[in-house]
Structure formats: C-alpha cells, structure tokens
Design goal:
about 20% strand, 50 strands, eight-stranded mixed beta sheet, alpha+beta, about 30% helix, 31 helices, 4 domains
C-alpha cells in the first residue's frame, strides 16, 4: 500500500481521512494487515538491546523500584490497574465497547506510573542526569497539532505519545492540555485491556491482530511525519503484560513479553532510556541527518529561500518560520533542506519516498535562486538501484530529469573498512554487515526542479511538456531502457517559466526501469580507487565497486586460541621495558612526592575501598554485570589519577622524550579511523590527542587508534588475575586483553602489544605477540610502588615506538616530506574524487619500509590487514621505491608482510624455487625473512618472536618469523568478473599456472577463491586474465629446497684507507634442506576436496595430491559464479542477470559455502553440483554455463565411480571442460 502526498500542491490526497479523498481508517488497517502477513517476528532479544536498556545503572533501577513500592501515588495506580484488569477478564481478541472504556480508564493510572518513574530517575549514582526532557502524554483528550503536511492526521492518535517538545495550553474549562506536533513524537504506546489482545496470535500463522495493525498505522504516520525516520518504536501494553515493537520497512520485530509488576525493573529501564537518554538516532533518525538550530546561518538562509518561494502565502510562511532545517551528509557533501518536504509517502512497507528542495550552499542558492532536489527512498536489494540505472544512460536529453549523483546510504564511519549500508537487516543487527535480501536506503540528487503536470498555465505549455517527456522516453527506449512507471507524478512541468519548448516538461523516477541489454554497471559512491593504466601515462581504469577487498582470502576454519600459549613470571618482560634504566634517585623522589600528594593519597584511599575482599568475589560474577562494570569504572577513574600524578612528576635533570598521557576510555571519546576496530580497554596510553568540546561542556579527547601505545585491563579482585588455579585455563582478564591486543596488533607494522594488568591490589605486565603471551611477575600496587613508577615513567617519558612494538625497519615520514607528499598525491588520484577517502588519505601517514636495502614507501591506506592474534597477521600495501616515478607512470608494487612458522619453508623460498615464469602466476619480485637493523658487519638476527622476547637475540628453535615479499602483479577478486568469458579465461590461466608448478613438483595446497585473482588490467591477453597467488603452504616434492636468504650488510671502513667506506650491499646465503613432511593439512575448508574434508571429520588423513587441488578449482569456479551472480549488484557486460537467476545463485551459494562444519560440507558435496542449479529454473542460465555445469557433473560423477570413491580429476580433464565453455562463450558473444 502506498498513498503518496504532495505538500506543495493544491490538490492533495491523504490516507487516513476519507473526507479528504483518502482511505478510511478501517480500510487502511485492513490493507496494513495484508501487508504485514509473514513479516512479524516475535520474542526477539535484540529489540530491547537496541533500546540500550542494559546500559541503565542497576543500582538506579533497584532504587526506583524500591521507591515506587513505597510511593503512595504508584501503589494507588497499581491497585486501580489491577481492578481494571480483573474487570476486563481475558476472554478474547475483539475489543468491545466495554473493553474500550476500560482502556480509556487505564490511561490515568499508567500516566501516574510513568510520571513517577521519570521523576524518580532524575539522576543515577554517577551523577548522570537527563540528556533529554521528554514526557509521556495520554492522547485521550489531548489535541495532537499537525502542520501543513500533516494536518489531517490529528484524528489518528495512539493512546500515549512520547514527546520531544510540547506546549502547555489552558482550555476554556481551566484544564491543562498540551499542543504537540507530529514530528515531536519520539515513540508511542498502544493499550489493550486484556493479555489475550496482545500481539502474538494464539496459533502459529500469519494472523495480524488488532493491536499490531493499529500500532502499525501509527508507525506508518510516524515514519512519514518525522522527517528522515528509519524506524518507529512502540510500547504495547495489553492487560498486565507489555512488550516493545520496532516497525521498519521489512515488518515488525517484537521483544519478549514481560509482566508489568513481575518485570517492573524492565519497564523502569525502558521508561528511563526513552525519557532520559536515547538520542534521536536511537529512536530511528537517519544518523547522517542533523537538525540545525533555528539561528544557524544556513537555517536562516534556507527559511528565507523557502519564504521567497511561498510567494506571499501567509499560512505557508508561518509554517516555514516554525519548521526546522535539516542538514544531510551525503557523498561527503552537506545538503540543507529548504522549507517543507515537497513529497512524502505514507506507506509502511513501501519505498517511503520523500522529496526535498536542498542546497549545498544556501547563500549561493539565495543569490541565484538555483537549488537541487533530494530524493530518498528504500529499495529492494535484489533490484538495481535508481542511481545505477541513471549512470547507465548514455548522453543527456532535454526532456529527462538531470541526474547529479546517487548512492545507497551508509552508516557514518571513522574507520578504513567500508562502512555498512543502511539496510533494515543492518539496523536490526547491531554488528551490521548483514548479507542477504533486505531493504536498502537510497538517495539521489537531481538538478532539475519541476512542478506537477496539472499546474500548467496554458494548454500549449501542457502539451509541450508531454511531448518533451515522451521524447525522453523514446531516448531511453533507444538505449534498451524501459521506464515502466509512467504516471502523473513522474511527468513534471519545468519550474522555469522561460524554459525552451524542448524543456517545458521532463520525465523522472526511473526506479522501476528495466534494462534489456544486460549491461548495467553499478558504480558505488565508495569504491576502491581505480588503478593507473600501466600502458598509458596518467590514464586510469574505471573504478570498481569494492573497498579494500583485494587479496581477501576467506577464513581458514581453524580458530586459534591461547591455550598452551601463556608464560607466567617471566623476568624478561620488565627487562624489555627497560625499567632498570630509570634513575633510582628519580624513583625515590617521585615516591616521596606521591606520599605527600593530596590527589594521589585520596585516589589511593578510594582504591583501597573499591578493591573487593576475596569472599565477596561472588558478588562480582556475571549475574551482576552492571555492578561489575560500575566498580571497574570507578577503579579506572582513580587509577587514571594515580598514573597521571606519576607522569606529572618532573625533575630538573631529566626531560621527557615523549608527551604521552593515560586516558580513561569510560570518560573520553575514542575515535577510530577506517580499518580499525572499536574495542575499548579500561585505560589507554596515548601518543597524540586533542581536546574537543562536548555537549556536556566538559573536555573530551579525540584519539586515533594508531596513537594508542599501550592499554590497561582492570579487575576488582586479586582472584581475577591472569594466573588460573586450573592448568591451561585462560582467565577472563586475559581473554579480554587478548581481544584488545588483537586489534592493536592489526595497526600498521606492529610486532607486539604491551598491556598492564591490575587486579585488586596487584599488577603485572603482559606482552602479546604471534606466539602467545608472556607475563611479568606479579607485584603489589603499594608495596611495590617503585616498580609501578618505573613502568609508568618508562612508558610515558622514554620508550620509543619500537620499544612499544613497531617494526624497527619502518619509519613514519613527516607529512611535509617530499615522498610523503608524492605518495599522498598518488593515493588522492586513485581516490577518484571520493572526498571521504581523500580526507583520510590527507591525515594518514606514509610509512617507509627498509627491506633488502631498498626503501619502499606506502601509498595511501592498507589494501588488507588481518585481525588475527596468533595467525599470520597478513597485511597488504601498495608501495613504491620511487614515488616520483610511480606518480608519472601509474605503476607501483604490492608489499605483503606475514608471519610464518620457522619449521616451514618461506613463501619467498618457494617462489625462488620456481624455474621460469608463467602468465597465470603472480609475478614475484623479491622476498626474504625480515632482519633487525644492524650497524655491525655481523649478520643481523631475524625478526622472530623468540628474538623479540630475548634481547640477546640469535635464538634458535621453533618460532614465528616475520616475512616480506614484493609482487609486481596487482589483481582483483575472482567474483568481480565483468563477463563469463573473462571469468573462465582467468580460471584457465590460474589452472595452467598450477600445472606449471606441479610439473616442477610444487603443489600449491591452498586453492581458494582468495588465491585465484582476476587481472586488474582490462586489456590483459587471454593467458593473463587471471593468476594464482599465495604459495605460502605449497609443498615441494623433489626433496631439495634451495633457500636464498638476502642479508643486509652495512657499509664498512676500508682497512687500507682512512675513512673510506664500502657501498652498502646484501649477502645471499643459499642452503639446501629437505622440505618438512608429515600430515599437516592445509587449505580453506570451503574449497577443500571431499576426501580432505572427510579426513577432518574423523577419517584417515590422506596425503595432499594434485587432484585434490584440481577439485578445489571446481569449487572456486562455483564460488566465483554464484557470488558474482547472486551478490554483486551489477549486470555482466552484454548480459542481464534476472531476479530469478540471482535468487537461485544465492540459494546455491548458501548451500555450498556458508558452512565451516566438515559434516555439513560433506553432506552438500555428496551431490556433484547443488541440485538447485538443476531445477525447473535451469534455463535461466546462459546455455554455455548450463553446459559447463553438466560437463562438470558428468566429470565428477565418472571419477567418483572409481574404486576410491573420490574424484581424481587431473589438469587435463578440467582444461578440456574449460576450453569447451570458453569456445562456446566466444561463439555466443
């Protein structure tokens, strides 16, 4: 159901008021019931979590509950409600007149209860008062004032409204009443007299009960009248029970049902959050939108423009005067609304379209009279977006709306990772990045401003406008674009009275258009920048629709844990911090000063009171989570004082090398940047920060992730320390700290992470690296205050970034360094005008990496970083050894850094073993284990976890080694192919490369969709359309692995000549070692051959053979096709993708690749190809692809008929199938 309305038109139609030409309330709700069938989800715990009720202080809730039980007004109201509940009975769904009367009587006692909760919840024990002054108003006898665009809704009102703003008025009878605008309603309540009238149907099915359809009707109007509202929250009370409902464009989610009195604490939390704490965004406002203050210069200017457009209409001018101006951040431009909306939709589950006049520069618009049109609407994820369709149009036409820009809308983000889109799925799931069919918010900016076709001033103007729009329709049809939604709302008159004849009218709204030639290309507003064309100077390729997804292998299945990786009481930990280097005299002076310092002594006293005795540990269990968090917050506050008093101690003889500061994350803002997680620790040590004003008029800090040097984890008792009484148990403090360290180690070129643990009155230092965690001995805060002073002083005053874990071969260039400027210029050029990305690049440092005696410089942000704690920690960067040359040619390199196990050959050793080159294999430039910098002629030690832990270094034995490689080939994911032909040529190139390696007795053993890439060069020859990469797990079967180690040698003095030095060089050591054998199983489980997957579920483990990898290529092929067709939102070149084909692709993709459990994968693999591809919709696939699926099915079926029961498919058999499909595709193209 969709009942659009046009505010600026004199002919208006409103749903909800039959006197104005709309539907009756009864008919509207009948339609709503039909819409909501199958779209109701009950007992969803995420509903109350989205309200943040868990953040309400437990002690405050307990206190309010206690006060209410002793409050005369509450007790009387409760008794009155119980009487009404007894009178109502519980005999059915239908609301009789008697029950309606009881509902009206329920309002007064409920109002009393709500008011008492609000009054008792003025401030919690932490002094947190009301952020918002909201009030629940019973609507039985309150006029709900409308505006020009909502006046007819005043007769439709919920039982209670939560109001942001309201005005008291006194009626003629002296009774206090309130005047409330629709847009000032934050939430609502719907009442029913009995629990039987609640939202859940008695029997499972599609029944939509009256309370749901009524509440949905209010939500529908709420979503319309509160501008830029994404969802609507309602509290449903039925008899003695209640629940919360959230209405959005995909339906309704309901919380579990609670009892008013038995679960009074839940009701208190809900009321407290709604009236005191929840922001407009929490209530559903678009997070990209803000309301400007009335006196804001842009607000004043926009009102002046709107007033001028009103042309003396007094009523409209009065509304404009009181109507807010909204700022919308879209595509990194701020647009400001001018006056009231031009058009808004009244649908609940429809597109929810709204049209506004906007300007990016109100002052300029006021001077010129030129502004823009902003359209916002929800779209289905399975359909191409309107902006994608607009981008597909070649050329322009006078009779077609002039498109400026458009995109799906994203959540605001400060990280390097592509932010999630605003979808109903992501709104419902706070972790976001939810995939699958959903509804997506979409925005467009148009340059053409029109007016309704029925407002023509002459017949000539009208027919010229119709002709212009018809010509535009033909212009589109000639490009195989069919509009499919011609209506009076989509053919508009020009707003320019002096427009030429060909521009008297125009066609708009191509959202439902169909493109019949299959060449729809969706350009997203946040792409990974396109690459320079290596064949032409300063020419770039077309940008792709991805962000930082190059070289993205799927997870490898095995979850790495800390069990067996913890080492306690290690004396080397504090030695690595060099606390012994702190002057003893300084330590004594600081300790004496602290013992006389009032702030320190006061914090010490508070800490002693807060530290819990062991017998009260049970009170701090998970069942009392809020109390635990509050205690930790108070501990953090006092420790921050202690640490900073130590930091502030100065002496005349010692100066600070670094100006760092300990910051409590509970009280300060921690701002991230893209590609950085949001984990928080109790205290963090900051390298750089800046004070920013907050809304609460207190100083807050803006801190970037890469400026965080170290962290503190707190627990109230000594029993909660890192050492467990049970062997090989990872305690809570270690697990929480490891999560933070994992995020910290994902920062650029970080080798280890240092954390300070404080538990009760005890403390220790922990160092996290790729082999696990080492802990220092445990000390007492006050008995060993000297040790704490040494640690704090070293960390804040003296330790260098390398001491804190930065790779010693890496430096951060100053922003004004010539190479830094050039690398930023390259990255900015690659950003293709993406303002958000350019701003990040401007503030992001350039790193210089000294590797094999060559300095490489990073270009922009990392392409990929791993978030693993104990894994390989892979990071991928664009780099250049000569930024000036790269800027001129557009050619750069790929730098890969990863940790490897010492017992395995390195990836560079394997690459060096390859004889010759192959078009389908990644082009290797150089690689080596990483060495510590050295000024000595002695071979420097390697950067290993063992050598990092032991300051003498040169430690031998099993360890983890840092390894680096430089590649010349730049690729993109296999599932981003533009045509089937490109895809199969890429697969063939990679398979031929695999055969090329196998012929040299090198078996890849990790064939996956992340290791078979498409070329980034669109003009690459067929043999180079794709390539194989990532040979880290390859096995060499000829028994002699030749390893060349490149060791940097510094310049030396010539012994025969004074002060003459040799040129810096490298020394190459070559060794031959037999490769390690054994039953180590490698690979990504979703792509493993069936025989290998079966071994993971308890079968005998076979030796990894060539045919296992070849079978993995088949699964990579399925993965690439199904992901591209099912999930990449653009058509193929020359081939449209039907909705049916997208659906069956998604179904097959989920069958095959959404599992990591070996038994589930085996079940799916028992069929050679998912049956969904061969149902009655098989013909939706192009014929060559149908034939390919059949050929592979026959091939696998034949091979599995052998005695082994497994498909031993070799290169030759699969190459025959690939050649056949390639030939067929060439014939049909």
């Amino acid at each position: 159901m969709s009942s659009p309305r046009k505010v600026s038109s004199s002919a208006q139609s409103y749903a909800g008021d039959p006197r104005k030409g709309g539907y009756s309330t009864e008919s509207v709700r009948t339609i709503i019931k039909e819409e909501l069938e199958g779209k109701l989800e009950f007992d969803r715990p995420n509903v109350l979590h989205r309200l943040g009720i868990q953040d309400v202080d437990d002690e405050l809730v307990n206190r309010i509950g206690h006060d209410l039980e002793n409050d005369e007004s509450f007790v009387e109201s409760k008794m009155m409600l119980n009487k009404l509940f007894n009178l109502s009975g519980n005999d059915g769904e239908n609301a009789t007149g008697e029950k309606k009367n009881l509902e009206d009587k329920m309002m007064e006692p409920l109002s009393q209860i709500f008011d008492r909760v609000v009054q008792l919840a003025v401030a919690d024990d932490n002094g947190r008062g009301r952020r918002y002054e909201r009030k629940w108003l019973a609507n039985a006898d309150q006029p709900l004032q409308g505006e020009g665009d909502t006046f007819s809704f005043s007769e439709i009102k919920p039982d209670f409204t939560l109001c942001d703003e309201f005005r008291e008025i006194i009626s003629g009878k002296g009774k206090k009443r309130y005047e409330v605008l629709w847009r000032h309603r934050a939430a609502f309540i719907e009442l029913k007299a009995t629990s039987a009238q609640g939202p859940k149907p008695v029997k499972q099915g599609n029944t939509v009960k009256a309370i749901v359809s009524q509440a949905a009707d209010y939500a529908r109007l709420h979503l319309t009248c509160r501008p830029f509202q994404l969802f609507s929250i309602g509290l449903l009370i039925f008899g003695k029970q209640f629940c919360v409902a959230i209405f959005d464009k995909d339906g309704v989610q309901f919380s579990p049902i609670h009892d008013l009195w038995d679960n009074l604490d839940v009701l208190i939390r809900i009321i407290r959050r709604m009236t005191h704490e929840m922001s407009p965004v929490d209530f559903g406002q678009d997070p990209n939108v803000n309301i400007l203050p009335n006196n804001h210069p842009n607000s004043v200017t926009c009102r002046n423009i709107a007033t001028a457009l009103a042309k003396g209409n007094t009523d409209l001018i009065n509304e404009i005067t009181n109507y807010p101006t909204y700022s919308i951040n879209f595509c990194n431009i701020k647009y400001y609304t001018i006056g009231l909306p031009v058009w808004t939709s009244l649908s609940l589950l429809g597109r929810g379209t709204s049209i506004w006049r906007v300007s990016a520069s109100p002052t300029e618009s006021f001077a010129t009279g030129i502004f823009l049109i902003l359209k916002t609407a929800w779209r289905q994820s399975k359909r191409p977006s309107e902006s994608a369709i607009m981008q597909r149009i070649k050329g322009s036409h006078d009779g077609l709306v002039q498109y400026s820009q458009g995109s799906d809308v994203f959540f605001p983000s400060f990280s390097l990772i592509a932010p999630p889109k605003i979808t109903t799925a992501n709104l419902r799931n706070q972790n976001r990045h939810v995939e699958g069919d959903t509804t997506i918010l979409h925005r467009l900016i148009f340059k053409t401003v029109g007016r309704p076709i029925w407002e023509f001033d002459s017949y000539l103007e009208f027919f010229l406008a119709i002709k212009a729009a018809l010509n535009a329709h033909k212009f589109l049809a000639d490009q195989n674009i069919l509009h499919r939604d011609i209506s009076a709302g989509n053919v508009l008159l020009s707003s320019n009275p002096n427009a030429p004849d060909s521009q008297k009218g125009f066609l708009t709204d191509l959202e439902f258009a169909r493109i019949d030639d299959g060449t729809l290309e969706t350009k997203n507003i946040i792409p990974v920048p396109s690459l320079f064309n290596p064949n032409r100077v300063r020419e770039m390729t077309v940008p792709t629709t991805r962000t930082h997804t190059t070289w993205t292998p799927p997870p490898r299945g095995a979850v790495l844990t800390l069990h067996g990786k913890l080492q306690f009481d290690r004396t080397n930990v504090l030695s690595r911090l060099c606390i012994q280097d702190v002057d003893d005299v300084v330590v004594r002076q600081c300790q004496n000063r602290l013992n006389m310092d009032e702030i320190f002594l006061k914090s010490k006293s508070k800490l002693d009171r807060l530290h819990m005795p062991e017998e009260k540990l049970e009170e701090d269990s998970d069942s009392n989570e809020a109390n635990k968090k509050e205690r930790e917050r108070q501990l953090t506050e006092q420790l921050e004082n202690v640490f900073n008093r130590i930091c502030q101690f100065t002496t005349e003889t010692k100066t600070r090398q670094y100006n760092r500061r300990w910051v409590s994350t509970a009280a300060k803002k921690l701002r991230g940047e893209k590609n950085t997680p949001t984990n928080k620790s109790s205290l963090i040590l900051c390298e750089e920060y800046k004070d920013i004003p907050s809304k609460k008029r207190r100083k807050e800090l803006e801190i970037l992730w890469r400026h965080r040097m170290s962290f503190v984890k707190l627990k109230p008792t000594a029993a909660q320390g890192p050492k467990s009484t049970e062997e090989d148990t990872v305690t809570e403090i270690v697990a929480e700290a490891a999560e933070y360290a994992r995020a910290h180690l994902s920062l650029p070129f970080q080798l280890f992470s240092i954390g300070l643990f404080i538990f009760g009155k005890q403390f220790c230092v922990a160092i996290f690296d790729k082999d696990g965690v080492q802990f220092s001995s445990i000390h007492d805060l006050w008995d060993n205050l000297d040790v704490l002073i040494r640690i704090i002083r070293r960390m804040t005053h003296e330790m260098s970034p390398v001491d804190f874990g930065q790779d010693p071969n890496v430096n951060i260039l100053p922003n004004n360094h010539p190479n830094s400027v050039t690398c930023r210029n390259i990255a900015t050029a690659l950003a293709k005008g993406n303002t958000d990305l350019i701003n990040e690049i401007t503030n992001y440092p350039t790193y210089s990496i000294n590797f094999c005696n060559i300095k490489y410089y990073t270009i922009g942000l990392p392409v990929w970083t791993s978030l693993s704690l104990l894994g390989r920690g892979t990071s991928i960067w664009r780099v250049s050894a000569s930024p000036t040359e790269s800027f001129a040619t557009g050619i750069f390199l790929i730098l890969k850094t990863a940790w490897r196990q010492s017992k395995r050959p390195s990836e560079s050793a394997i690459m060096q073993r390859i004889k010759g080159s192959h078009d389908g294999l990644v082009q290797y430039s150089q690689g080596s284990d990483v060495f510590f910098p050295s000024s000595s002629h002695i071979s420097p030690p390697k950067v290993t976890t063992a050598n990092l832990r032991n300051q003498n270094r040169h430690v031998e034995g099993d360890t983890t080694i840092l390894h680096r490689l430089i590649f010349k080939t730049v690729g993109r994911p296999i599932w981003e192919f533009d045509s089937y032909l490109e895809f199969f040529l890429a697969i063939k190139a990679a398979l031929n490369a695999h055969k090329f390696l196998a012929d040299q007795n090198i078996l890849h053993r990790d064939i996956s969709a992340g290791n078979v890439l498409l070329s980034s060069n669109p003009n690459a020859p067929d043999s180079q359309k794709g390539f194989l990469t990532d040979l880290e797990f390859a096995r060499i079967d000829d028994g002699t692995l030749e390893t060349k180690s490149i060791i940097p040698v510094s310049s030396l003095f010539n012994p025969n000549r004074v002060r003459e030095m040799t040129v810096p060089t490298t020394r190459t050591h070559t060794t031959w070692t037999p490769p390690p054998r054994g039953a180590v199983l490698t690979g990504t489980i979703q792509f493993m051959a069936l025989e290998l997957v079966r071994s993971l579920s308890g079968g005998s483990q076979p030796i990894h053979r060539i045919y296992h990898d070849v079978e993995s290529f088949i699964w990579v092929t399925y993965y690439g096709i199904l992901r591209r067709i099912g999930y990449v939102g653009r058509n193929l070149t020359g081939e449209a993708i039907s909705a049916g084909l997208r659906n069956i692709s998604r179904g097959a993709f989920k069958e095959l690749f959404n599992h990591v459990d070996p038994k589930r994968i085996i079940k799916e693999r028992l069929l050679p190809i998912p049956s969904i591809l061969f149902n009655d919709q098989e013909t939706l696939w192009p014929f060559p692809i149908q034939q390919f699926f059949r050929d592979v099915r026959r091939l696998v079926h034949t091979m599995r008929g052998e005695e082994s029961g497994y498909g031993r498919i070799m290169h030759e058999e699969l190459l025959v199938v690939l050649d056949k499909v390639i030939a067929s595709l060439r014939q049909t193209s």
